[in-house]
């Protein structure tokens, strides 16, 4: 996935790819509750799959964005914060069972 992403960034405008990869999952997340209620768990799983797919497109470009957005003294700290944010999301994913049990799977 990462190698394919780098080819896409090389041949297309990187800002356009970044905007689409950031905007499309947001659009899917807006639609997800309605599809979760009417489409069931399969449509929700598909929405989450495509959200993850677009997140994979963003991951390789994060270090270059951090390099261009932050001062040299802040680079390491910002890279660590961003990477830890991604990993924290994976860790807290294990809580989804309790959330589903208490609030229903549509809440996710």
Structure description:
- The protein has helices spanning 2-11, 14-58, 62-69, 75-92, 96-103.
- The protein has 108 residues and is an all-alpha fold.
- Helix 1 (2-11) packs antiparallel against helix 2 (14-58) and helix 3 (62-69) runs antiparallel to helix 4.
- It is globular, with a radius of gyration of 16 Å.
- The protein starts with a helix and ends in a 5-residue tail after the last helix.
- The mean pLDDT is 77.
Distance between the termini: 26 Å
Major beta sheet summary: none
Q: What structural class do the secondary elements suggest?
A: mainly alpha
> Based on CA inertia axes, which overall geometry fits?
globular
What order do the helices and strands follow?
A: HHHHH
Q: How confident is the prediction overall: mean pLDDT? A: 77
Spatial extent as radius of gyration: 16 Å
Helix and strand arrangement:
Layout: H1 2-11, H2 14-58, H3 62-69, H4 75-92, H5 96-103
Which keywords apply here?
globular, 108 residues
Task: Provide a concise account of the structure shown.
The protein has 108 residues and is mostly helical.
């Amino acid at each position: 996935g990462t190698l394919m992403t780098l080819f896409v960034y090389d041949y297309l405008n990187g800002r356009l790819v970044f905007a689409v990869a950031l905007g499309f999952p947001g659009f899917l997340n807006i639609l997800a509750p309605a599809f979760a209620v009417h489409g069931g768990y399969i449509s929700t799983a598909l929405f989450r799959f495509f959200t993850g797919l677009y997140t994979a497109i963003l991951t390789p470009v994060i270090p270059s964005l951090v390099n261009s957005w932050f001062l040299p003294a802040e680079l390491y700290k910002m890279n660590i914060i961003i990477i830890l944010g991604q990993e924290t999301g994976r860790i807290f994913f294990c809580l989804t069972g309790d959330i589903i049990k208490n609030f229903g799977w549509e809440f996710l």
